Amino acid sequence: MPTKLFLKFTILLLAGTTFLSAKDTEKKGEGEKDLKSEIKEYIRHHLEDTHDFGLYSFTDDKKGKKVYRGLPLPVILWDEGLKVFSSTQLNHGKSVAQAGDNYYKLYHGKIYKTDEKGTISYDDHHHPTNAKPLDFSITKSVATIIFTALLMFLLFRGLARSYRENGLIAKGVGRFFEPIVLYIRDDIARPNIGEKHYKKYMSFLLTIFFFIWFLNLLGLTPLGINVTGNIAVTLCLALLTFLITTFTGKKDYWKHIFDPLGSSMKWYAKLPLYIILIPIEILGLIIKPFSLLIRLYANIQAGHIVLMSLIGLMFIFKSWIGSPLSFGLAFAISLIEILVALLQAYIFTMLSALYFGFASEEHEDH
Amino acid sequence: MEIPTIVGAGLVVIGVGLGIGNIGKGAMDAIGRQPDAYGKIQTAMLIAAALIEGIGFAALFAA
Question: Which residues are paired to A111 by β-bridges?
Answer without folding.
Answer: A106
